[in-house]
């Protein structure tokens, strides 16, 4: 199986170990280690395996005992840590590999500290290597980097054992399988190593491991073969299917013809004895659901449900007659297929596009992976003849143009001073040869660059499932400030997307999705997308809104205004670094009639920007301090959660000194932003992106348009908050970690929804399992108002909502437990006290 190892370039991993611990809890100041295990290596040679339980006087919760399988009685008989620690100290001077290594480090640092005291320097002390970063590069399609996901997905074990040595062994197996698979694709392997080299990570332990050849990987694996008989070749073969599934997936933006086929390769298209008509009529819908024999041919275990048929008929009526409707379809109705069938028949016969808006992206993906294939099978259609595509909003995509132009966190590539020629200068981002370790402050920025470069490269590979923002590992955003910041910076803004003129249009997941959606018969989206529809083609006029009970919250967000302290800090930074405005300078210099003709204009704008940056700095810091002081004086202040209060405004009388000072600063910031907006917005109309042929010009225009859009958003939010009109609810919130957030939301969401959605749509059907009570005589007025249904003319709506009977016997099977003795939510004992009583209740209920 070895692929011709290169003996000249053998990689020396030095001394290293894979280690894992189990503890009584997560607090190293209180909890204790109860199990430890490790694999110790010298280069590629396994020199020792070690495991032991550890004595502890701390009580072991039932959760920990069940999770680890370690009984409290076993711990009482185990050796004390002072005996075990000598074995752990053998790893001093090693690279210690652990999954989410911060946890191991927090418990083990005290064990190694005495050894540090006898060293003149820490150069040879232990160094932790967090395999979260390694596995994220080996399998970037895993949005959750829990070790168990890798273990089960790659068929290494049925589950994570949560034992020290066993988890250490499984972690190493995962690393070897992932590295082996990477090596199988020479282009990918070389690309990743190039990225690590450019970002000074190639000589880190992680970088060295990824550079190893097949023979060295086998040498490491041979230690495991002697230990538990594990074979790398066999393991890679078992995991092969998982890698192939990822590489062949192309769903998410618009399904490819290979993803949701109704007929498997080699099968006859006429494999069903009974065939259904594609006629769009109530009688045909009834015949489909009632033909039990034909349905069971397609779906084993199918049972006719009257409520599913009734739902389909009401959807069909609404679409055919161009009216809006409300339908409550309780859990168990078969709701998704119930509305997909009439929607598809309508689209087939009428040639009209239908939009299905689910509550979340998760439900959207579920519909595409489960319900859409069922529909294709039911009607014996193929995606080629009847395309149904999934489309997510622009903010869910990653813009490579924004990433490329922000790699150095400035617009220096576009900036020209008034005394320079019109050609910008390029910056070498990767100069220097020092090595970055994971404890280096610069590691976060370097790893962020590598990861985003890596997924943009993988998005150019085909076939594949494109990477979206939702696919990015959330834990990286928690652990790396640079990653969190970059993820927000490179989100696509549909308002400033340069479309087919973008130099990265060929690999852009957003544009690919739009192209497929334009040709689709049915588009499966979500609430957010419905409200922020792409401007490149009109939103379908026939819409089915699932999970409609959530529509008020989403509409409030879509039609509201919001600005945060992060937005203002980012603006200040952009002004200081010329990010955004530097693109304007570049455009002016490149389109000037004669060399230097734009120098005066550039100098004038630059002076305004410098002044704005200085003034913003003078107001922003004291504003944030005042807001923090304001909230910390309020009752029930908490440093754990958001603190919120009604927005103070000039129309309120008798404001205290702090409130008035906050308003004065915000008014000044608003005026600063307005002056900037007034000085720059007119330049947007000077050019049209379609007129640019040069990629740099297109990129610069996109960056400048994004900058102006951010100014508009900030100004509108501040203006609305300071006005605080009666038809909007405005509030200010403060969080110790996240800073300040100001929001203004429309009070009459229903009216806004009616005017912005229902009024200009052919038919909108709202459906959910919970629109009111079981028979619709309570709670309905609220949902009719929230959806805008109340404001409809009689000819555009059914007289009342439609409430299908519940499939389950909620009335006789439901038990309600009322409690009036819970502690305050802010009480430190809230969780254990409430959960303790709930646990007892669950046991009593059986």
Model description:
The chain is of the alpha/beta class. Helices cover 47% and strands 11% of the residues. The strands form three sheets. A seven-stranded parallel β-sheet has the order 8-9-7-10-15-6-16, sandwiched between helices. Helix 5 (131-138) packs parallel to helix 7 (164-184), helix 12 (282-290) packs antiparallel against helix 14 and helix 14 (306-321) runs parallel beside helix 15 (335-350). The radius of gyration is 30 Å and the shape is globular. The model is unreliable at 1-8, 249-269 and 408-434 (pLDDT under 50).
Walk me through the topology.
Elements (H helix, E strand, L loop, with lengths): L14 E9 L9 E10 L2 E9 L8 H7 L3 H6 L3 H8 L6 E4 L2 H16 L10 E4 H8 L8 H7 L10 H21 L1 H13 L6 H7 L2 H15 L3 H17 L33 H9 L1 H7 L7 H16 L3 E4 L6 H16 L3 E5 L2 H19 L8 E3 L9 H6 L37 H16 L15 H6 L1 H9 L19 H10 L3 E5 H5 L10 E4 L5 H8 L2 E4 H13 L3 H10 L8 H34 L10 E4 L10 H24 L14 H29 L4 E8 L3 E8 L2 H10 L4 E6 L11 H7 L15 E2 L6 H4 L16 H16 L1
Parallel strand pairs: 1-4, 4-5, 6-15, 6-16, 7-9, 7-10, 8-9, 10-15
Antiparallel strand pairs: 1-2, 2-3, 11-14, 12-13, 13-14
Helix pairs in contact: 5-7, 7-10, 7-11, 8-18, 12-14, 14-15, 15-16, 18-20, 24-26, 25-26, 25-28, 26-27, 27-28
């Amino acid at each position: 199986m070895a692929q011709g190892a290169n003996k000249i370039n053998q990689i020396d991993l030095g001394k290293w170990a894979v280690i894992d611990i189990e503890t009584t809890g997560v607090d190293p100041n209180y909890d204790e280690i109860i199990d430890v295990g490790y694999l110790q290596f010298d280069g590629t040679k396994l020199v020792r395996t070690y495991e032991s339980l550890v004595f502890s006087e701390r009580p072991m919760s039932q959760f920990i005992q069940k999770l680890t399988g370690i009984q409290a009685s076993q711990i009482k008989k185990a050796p004390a840590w002072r005996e075990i620690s000598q074995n752990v100290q053998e790893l001093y001077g090693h690279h210690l590999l652990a999954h989410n290594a911060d946890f191991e480090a927090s418990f083990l640092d005290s064990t190694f500290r005495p050894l540090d005291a006898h060293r003149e320097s820490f150069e040879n002390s232990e160094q932790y290597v967090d395999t979260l970063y390694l596995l994220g590069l080996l399998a970037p399609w895993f949005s959750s980097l829990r070790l168990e996901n890798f273990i089960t997905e790659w068929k290494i074990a049925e589950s994570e054992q949560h034992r020290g040595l066993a988890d250490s062994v499984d972690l190493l197996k995962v690393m070897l399988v992932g590295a082996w698979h990477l090596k199988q694709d020479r282009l990918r392997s070389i690309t990743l190593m190039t990225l690590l080299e450019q970002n000074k990570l190639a000589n880190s332990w992680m970088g060295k491991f990824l550079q190893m050849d097949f023979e060295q990987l086998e040498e490491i694996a041979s230690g495991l073969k002697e230990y538990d008989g594990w074979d790398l070749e066999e393991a890679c073969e078992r995991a092969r299917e998982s890698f192939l599934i990822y590489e062949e997936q192309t769903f998410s933006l618009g399904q490819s013809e290979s993803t949701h086929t109704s007929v498997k390769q080699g099968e006859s298209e006429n494999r069903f004895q009974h065939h259904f008509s594609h006629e769009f009529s109530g009688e045909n819908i009834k015949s489909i659901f009632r033909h039990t024999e034909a349905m069971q041919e397609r779906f084993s275990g199918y049972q006719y449900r009257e409520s599913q048929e009734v739902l389909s008929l009401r959807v069909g009526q609404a679409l055919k007659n161009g009216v809006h409707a409300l339908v409550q379809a309780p859990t168990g109705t078969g709701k998704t297929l119930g509305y997909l069938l009439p929607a598809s028949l309508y689209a087939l016969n009428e040639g009209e596009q239908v939009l299905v808006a689910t509550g979340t992206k998760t439900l959207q993906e579920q519909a595409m992976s489960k319900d859409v294939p069922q529909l294709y099978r039911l009607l014996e259609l193929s995606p080629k003849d009847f395309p149904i595509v999934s489309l997510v909003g622009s903010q869910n995509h990653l813009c490579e143009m924004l990433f490329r132009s922000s790699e150095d966190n400035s617009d220096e590539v576009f900036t020209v001073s008034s005394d320079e020629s019109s050609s910008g200068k390029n910056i070498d981002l990767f100069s220097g040869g020092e090595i970055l370790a994971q404890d280096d402050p610069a590691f976060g920025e370097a790893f962020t660059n590598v990861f985003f470069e890596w997924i943009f490269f993988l998005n150019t590979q085909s076939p594949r499932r494109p990477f979206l923002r939702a696919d990015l590992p959330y834990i990286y955003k928690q652990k790396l400030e640079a990653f969190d910041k970059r993820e927000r910076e490179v989100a696509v803004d549909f308002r400033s997307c340069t479309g087919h003129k973008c130099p990265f249009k060929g690999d852009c997941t957003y544009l690919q999705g739009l192209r497929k959606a334009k040709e689709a018969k049915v588009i499966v989206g979500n609430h957010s997308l419905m409200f922020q529809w792409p401007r490149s083609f009109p939103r379908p006029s026939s819409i089915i809104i699932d999970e409609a009970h959530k529509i008020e919250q989403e509409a409030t967000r879509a039609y509201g205004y919001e600005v945060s302290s992060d937005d203002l800090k980012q603006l200040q930074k952009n002004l200081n670094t010329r990010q955004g405005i530097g693109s304007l300078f570049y455009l002016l210099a490149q389109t000037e009639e004669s060399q230097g003709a734009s120098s005066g204009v550039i100098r004038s704008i630059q002076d305004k920007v410098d002044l704005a940056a200085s003034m913003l700095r003078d107001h922003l810091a004291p504003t944030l301090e005042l807001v923090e002081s304001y909230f910390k004086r309020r009752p029930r202040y908490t440093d754990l959660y958001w603190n919120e209060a009604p927005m103070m405004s000039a129309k309120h009388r008798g404001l205290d000194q702090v409130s008035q000072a906050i308003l004065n600063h915000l008014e000044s910031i608003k005026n600063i932003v307005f002056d900037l907006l007034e000085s720059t917005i007119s330049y947007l109309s000077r050019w049209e992106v379609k007129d640019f042929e040069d990629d740099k010009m297109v990129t610069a225009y996109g960056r400048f348009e994004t900058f102006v859009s951010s100014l508009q958003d900030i100004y509108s939010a501040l203006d609305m908050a300071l006005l605080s009109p009666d038809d909007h609810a405005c509030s200010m919130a403060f969080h110790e970690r996240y800073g300040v957030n100001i929001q203004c939301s429309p009070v009459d969401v229903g009216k806004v929804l009616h005017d912005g959605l229902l009024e200009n749509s052919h038919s909108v059907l709202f459906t959910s399992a919970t629109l009111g009570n079981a028979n619709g005589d309570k709670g309905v007025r609220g949902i009719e108002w929230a959806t805008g249904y109340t404001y409809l003319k009689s000819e555009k709506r059914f007289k009342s909502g439609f409430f299908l009977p519940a499939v389950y016997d909620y009335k006789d099977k439901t038990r309600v437990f009322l409690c009036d003795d819970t502690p305050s939510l802010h009480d430190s004992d809230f969780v254990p006290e409430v959960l303790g009583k709930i646990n007892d209740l669950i046991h009593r209920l059986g």
